[in-house]
Write a structure and sequence with these properties.
single chain, alpha+beta, four-stranded antiparallel sheet, 6 helices
Length: 164
Amino acid sequence: MSIRCYIPTTLTAIRRGLGSVHAVVPDAHGRELGGDELEAREFDALCIAAALAATQSFDDAAASAQESASDSGPAAASPRAVIAYDAPDSSAGEDLAEGFDVLTLPEVDMTSVASIHLDEVEIWEEAAAIAADRGHEAAEDHLGDSDLLWYDATELAELLRERG
């Protein structure tokens, strides 16, 4: 058995290779549900992971800008991504929010990736512009109003080439 979880990350992190990560999952009670109820809980877990991925992206960009001594302007945030992942049933979890846990995964076996979820290029570019103008919280609010696009795991290499 495995646990379907959602890894908040960025395209840059995926390119580098994912090591130890955290993933969002419905809690044990939620995973026992079936049908539409389970699907709704998993969708909510994906949405939580998407929000965490946006925060991670903008925080990483801010940290890079602070580390950079050049005057080349603010660092660009890497597009957010959420990976739907089938983690081993033995993965350790801790409470995240009511009804959801966070799993700590020591490594990511890319053969266990079910799908990848990304923003449309235009939506991400709008969010990056909003972040530059009004800050990352406004950009995250903008992203909260959009849905992520679904890609099969077999499309990852092509996505990384296209979204270079």
